[in-house]
Amino acid sequence: MKIIVTSIFVQDQEKALEFYTKTLGFVKKHDVPVGKFRWITLVSPDVQDGTELVLEPNDHPAAKEYQKKIFADGIPATMFGVADVREEYQRLIKNGVKFTMEPTEMGEVTIAVFDDTCGNLIQIAQK
Protein backbone atom coordinates (compact mmCIF):
# COMPACT_ATOMS: atom_id res chain seq x y z
CA MET A 1 0.00 0.00 0.00
CA LYS A 2 1.22 3.51 -0.76
CA ILE A 3 -0.09 7.05 -0.53
CA ILE A 4 -1.11 8.22 -4.00
CA VAL A 5 -3.25 11.28 -3.20
CA THR A 6 -3.48 13.60 -0.22
CA SER A 7 -5.42 16.82 0.12
CA ILE A 8 -5.34 20.23 1.70
CA PHE A 9 -8.37 22.44 2.28
CA VAL A 10 -8.22 25.80 0.52
CA GLN A 11 -10.51 28.83 0.68
CA ASP A 12 -10.23 29.60 -3.04
CA GLN A 13 -9.14 26.97 -5.55
CA GLU A 14 -7.98 29.42 -8.23
CA LYS A 15 -5.91 31.46 -5.77
CA ALA A 16 -4.45 28.26 -4.34
CA LEU A 17 -3.60 26.94 -7.81
CA GLU A 18 -1.71 30.12 -8.60
CA PHE A 19 0.17 30.15 -5.28
CA TYR A 20 1.09 26.48 -5.31
CA THR A 21 2.26 26.51 -8.94
CA LYS A 22 3.72 29.99 -9.50
CA THR A 23 5.10 30.66 -6.02
CA LEU A 24 5.94 27.19 -4.70
CA GLY A 25 6.72 25.54 -8.04
CA PHE A 26 4.39 22.53 -8.05
CA VAL A 27 3.06 21.28 -11.40
CA LYS A 28 -0.65 21.00 -12.18
CA LYS A 29 -1.53 17.39 -13.05
CA HIS A 30 -5.34 17.41 -13.15
CA ASP A 31 -7.89 20.21 -13.39
CA VAL A 32 -11.36 18.76 -13.95
CA PRO A 33 -14.70 20.53 -13.35
CA VAL A 34 -16.78 18.79 -10.68
CA GLY A 35 -20.03 20.69 -10.16
CA LYS A 36 -19.28 24.16 -8.82
CA PHE A 37 -15.73 23.13 -7.88
CA ARG A 38 -12.76 21.45 -9.60
CA TRP A 39 -10.64 18.34 -9.05
CA ILE A 40 -7.24 20.03 -9.02
CA THR A 41 -4.15 17.99 -8.26
CA LEU A 42 -0.53 19.05 -8.13
CA VAL A 43 2.71 17.11 -8.19
CA SER A 44 6.34 17.81 -7.52
CA PRO A 45 8.20 18.86 -10.67
CA ASP A 46 10.84 16.25 -9.75
CA VAL A 47 8.39 13.34 -9.30
CA GLN A 48 5.49 13.95 -11.66
CA ASP A 49 4.22 10.39 -11.30
CA GLY A 50 4.39 10.60 -7.50
CA THR A 51 1.92 11.56 -4.78
CA GLU A 52 -0.67 14.10 -5.87
CA LEU A 53 -1.85 17.00 -3.71
CA VAL A 54 -5.55 17.86 -4.09
CA LEU A 55 -6.56 21.49 -3.60
CA GLU A 56 -9.79 20.63 -1.80
CA PRO A 57 -12.42 23.38 -1.40
CA ASN A 58 -13.25 24.04 2.25
CA ASP A 59 -16.94 24.47 1.40
CA HIS A 60 -18.19 22.13 4.14
CA PRO A 61 -18.68 23.82 7.55
CA ALA A 62 -16.55 21.16 9.28
CA ALA A 63 -13.70 21.80 6.84
CA LYS A 64 -13.86 25.55 7.42
CA GLU A 65 -13.88 25.09 11.20
CA TYR A 66 -10.99 22.60 11.11
CA GLN A 67 -8.93 24.87 8.86
CA LYS A 68 -9.57 27.96 11.00
CA LYS A 69 -8.76 26.21 14.27
CA ILE A 70 -5.49 24.59 13.25
CA PHE A 71 -4.36 27.85 11.62
CA ALA A 72 -5.22 29.83 14.78
CA ASP A 73 -3.30 27.32 16.89
CA GLY A 74 -0.24 27.59 14.61
CA ILE A 75 -0.49 23.98 13.40
CA PRO A 76 0.74 23.35 9.85
CA ALA A 77 -1.80 21.63 7.60
CA THR A 78 0.93 19.64 5.87
CA MET A 79 4.69 19.37 5.40
CA PHE A 80 6.79 19.47 2.25
CA GLY A 81 10.34 18.17 2.07
CA VAL A 82 13.07 20.40 0.65
CA ALA A 83 16.77 19.86 0.04
CA ASP A 84 17.81 23.06 1.87
CA VAL A 85 15.34 24.86 4.15
CA ARG A 86 17.41 28.04 4.39
CA GLU A 87 17.76 28.29 0.62
CA GLU A 88 14.04 27.64 0.09
CA TYR A 89 13.22 30.18 2.81
CA GLN A 90 15.23 32.85 1.01
CA ARG A 91 13.64 32.01 -2.36
CA LEU A 92 10.13 32.18 -0.94
CA ILE A 93 10.80 35.40 1.00
CA LYS A 94 11.89 36.99 -2.30
CA ASN A 95 8.56 35.83 -3.78
CA GLY A 96 6.62 37.60 -1.01
CA VAL A 97 5.80 34.56 1.13
CA LYS A 98 5.16 35.36 4.80
CA PHE A 99 6.77 33.01 7.31
CA THR A 100 5.50 32.43 10.83
CA MET A 101 8.65 30.48 11.75
CA GLU A 102 12.09 31.11 10.32
CA PRO A 103 14.36 28.11 9.66
CA THR A 104 14.81 26.36 12.99
CA GLU A 105 16.90 23.31 13.81
CA MET A 106 15.06 20.60 15.72
CA GLY A 107 17.48 17.77 16.25
CA GLU A 108 18.33 16.27 12.86
CA VAL A 109 15.61 18.24 11.06
CA THR A 110 15.44 21.91 10.09
CA ILE A 111 11.96 23.34 9.61
CA ALA A 112 10.24 26.61 8.70
CA VAL A 113 6.54 27.50 8.51
CA PHE A 114 4.74 29.85 6.12
CA ASP A 115 1.24 31.10 5.33
CA ASP A 116 -0.07 29.78 2.01
CA THR A 117 -2.54 32.71 1.65
CA CYS A 118 -5.36 30.13 1.30
CA GLY A 119 -6.07 29.49 4.99
CA ASN A 120 -3.17 27.19 5.87
CA LEU A 121 0.20 27.12 7.51
CA ILE A 122 2.66 24.94 5.63
CA GLN A 123 5.83 23.47 7.10
CA ILE A 124 8.92 22.81 5.02
CA ALA A 125 11.47 20.38 6.35
CA GLN A 126 15.01 19.28 5.60
CA LYS A 127 16.38 16.06 7.08
Automatic annotation (TrEMBL):
PANTHER family: GLYOXALASE/BLEOMYCIN RESISTANCE PROTEIN/DIOXYGENASE, GLYOXALASE_BLEOMYCIN RESISTANCE PROTEIN_DIOXYGENASE
Taxonomy, superkingdom: Bacteria
Span of domain VOC: 1-127
Pfam families (alphabetical): Glyoxalase
Lineage, top ranks: Bacteria, Bacillati, Bacillota, Bacilli, Bacillales
SUPFAM superfamilies reported for this sequence: Glyoxalase/Bleomycin resistance protein/Dihydroxybiphenyl dioxygenase
Protein name, UniProt field: VOC family protein
Record-linked PROSITE patterns: VOC (PS51819)
